[in-house]
Design brief:
The complex is a heterodimer of chains A (569) and B (171).
Chain A: E1 2-3, H1 4-14, E2 19-22, H2 29-37, E3 42-45, H3 49-63, E4 67-71, H4 75-79, H5 81-89, E5 94-100, H6 116-119, E6 126-129, H7 136-148, E7 154-160, H8 161-165, E8 167-168, H9 189-201, E9 205-209, H10 212-215, H11 219-228, E10 233-235, H12 260-268, E11 271-275, H13 281-284, E12 295-300, E13 314-317, H14 320-334, H15 341-353, H16 367-378, E14 383-387, H17 391-399, E15 408-409, H18 420-430, E16 435-441, H19 442-448, H20 452-457, E17 463-468, H21 473-482, H22 499-505, E18 509-513, H23 516-528, E19 533-538
Parallel strand pairs in A: 2-3, 2-4, 4-5, 5-7, 6-7, 9-10, 9-11, 11-12, 12-13, 14-15, 14-16, 16-17, 17-19, 18-19
Antiparallel strand pairs in A: 1-8
Helix pairs in contact in A: 1-2, 1-7, 3-5, 3-18, 9-14, 11-14, 12-15, 16-17, 16-23
Chain B: E1 2-10, H1 15-25, E2 30-37, E3 43-51, H2 54-66, E4 70-75, E5 81-92, H3 95-108, E6 111-115, E7 119-126, H4 128-138, E8 143-148, E9 152-155
Antiparallel strand pairs in B: 1-3, 1-4, 2-3, 5-7, 5-8, 5-9, 6-7
The chains are: A alpha/beta (569), B alpha+beta (171).
Chain lengths: 569, 171
Amino acid sequence: MTNGADAVLRSLEAEGVDVVFGIPGGAILPIYDALARGTSIHHVLARHEQGAGHMAEGYARASGRIGVAFATSGPGATNLVTPIADAWMDSTPLVCITGQVRSHLIGTDAFQECDITGITIPIVKHSWLVQDVAEIPAIIKAAFHVAGTGRCGPVLVDIPRDIQEALLEFTYPDVVDLPGWRPPKRVHARQVREAARQLAEAERPVLYVGGGVLNAHATDELLELAQAARLPVVTTLMAKSAFPETHELHFGWPGMHGPKWSNWAMNKCDVLVAVGSRFDDRVTGKLSAFAPGATVIHLDVDSAEIDKLRYADVPVVGPLKPVLAELTRELREVAVPGSTEPWLAQLREWREQFPLRYGNEGEMLKPQPVLEALQELTVGSDVVFTTGVGQHQMWAMQYLLCDRPRTFITSGGLGTMGYGIPAAIGAKAARPEATVVCVDGDGCFQMTCQELATSVLEDLPIVVVLVNNGSLGMVRQWQDMFFGERFSQIELTHHLPDYAALAEAYGARGFTVESDDELRPALEEALACGRTAVVDCRVDAREHCFPMIPAGASALQLVEYPDGQAVPA
Amino acid sequence: MKHTLSILVENRPGALARVVSMFRRRSFNIDSLAVGPTERRDVSRITLRVDCADHALSQIEKQIHKLVDVLRVNELPPGESVERELALINVAAPPSRRAELLALAEAFRARVADLGPDAIVFEIVGAPGEVDAFEELVRPHGVKELVRTGRIGLARAAAPVPDGRPQYVLR
């Protein structure tokens, strides 16, 4: 006989879990006791459950495996809600295991009781409140199965403390018994053939690639498809790194801060192939004006994405890996060689005509050169980037070029500030041989910087490149552009806290950069030092992120960097 | 337009909450809802009435289908299904009005479920339109309290039992 807590660990071991992220507490004590009694699983002790959740997400996104987070009941569990919502929006496979108060106390408002399965209903694929210790192996098995099949996403297993302590005969099941969970497995041959026919006839096709390609482990198939018929590829923020960004067929990133050439490619195309992408409003802008002349081919494993926002002329529901492989095979038979060359020439022309630009007025360091320097210093090396959310994230999208899958990890759908540092720690746990760099903003940094302690003490070194404009920059930009320059509650200051000193206080290296001259030496040293480091780059707050398509506008209303104009005061 | 959905769910804690939460989260409005056992002990049926456009209905069906507890979801198309509803109506019935009320009930095959000194509780089972009509007719007499079960339904006996998976065909 073994107890429920041991059964949880034996089940995780059976699933091949090598690392979990979490924080102990009263209702999950038996599981932590089981950890202490012995397991092959390494536990990373976070400083806040939100950090643990984002670490599990970063681990999942960097490794292509399922991330696991532990938390206790009540506040421990509610602190996981943000990462769960984040994983839900970005389809990140996550298994969250929470302690719950003893069964007989459920519903009595007991100490640290909260209805976490109820709270998370809208943001999980499924959840279980374990009611019998004998169910633990089958539930953990089902949890991993649901998180990682079909469209990936978070699941939650809530285990009352008495059930962690109860005894069972442990056997791990071979099969999952979930009659209601039947994600598509087959490729619909007729639909794929029709997609190939439409694509072969296209004069101006575009592959509009989303994060689904990474979740489906289908990046090789995507590359094959693009090369087979020389199709231009535009990758969303979630798909950044799914297609080599120095490849001649890569044409940037669509949406609110995407370059003009990427957005024009989408706007002017005649056949738009959505591959594991979901027509998010930050990509489409005004939906009715998005790719207005295009026939839409929509490939997705989630049938509910078909026709949700944009009618799909040719829907193909199925797992993307075989779908893309089949489509490539069909397309090779019908494609007309050279038919996309005029269109590719046009896209190259637009790219040359409308490069990304920024100003160089004033004394202060600009934010964009920080990203340019980071790109130059890391080119060709094994590096994984994570980001927070805001201007720095958009500049990271624009200036960092990622050629290998799973090397750009960011919070897209939920836009979770503070994601970057813990996600980087999780990514480092998944890819210890890689250099992991978190591009962060000063607002984001202060939401989760306590995890620097985790990074240092767990020997998961990361380099935080802080694009510090002393303000909540994206909010500042919107107040400047859309609210008549009435700045409201955006001042954080460049100097408080002293980020380098704070890093040192956490046992990390700290650097302060205030000029172009200091930038490269500091970045070089931070990247080479092999320790956790924070490079505080104090940049001009007046610099806005361009180009920009205002919310609800069409791609043709894209606002470029103000020409020859001093940065807005 | 109104649609009736028939949803088979595993008889597990929280299954109903997950279905209902999906409607709330995606801003679809539920008109009526009835839940109960089926021919299988481990399966419950939710019959749900929703007012939405056809495009939204398809989205609803697909979103419900993704829920792990849901075994099957399909629309009960009008004309191809049998739908019934039960109502209990407590109507003011002083002795002078009783005969008229009982005649009305007779015409609608409503039963007297309970009788008091100055009120009658009628029980009516029928297609939802019949229940509506009876309710309208007794309303002028003074309805003290009313409860309806919400409609339940099944495909017609001659219809094949649907498999309920969303269909994707060439358009």
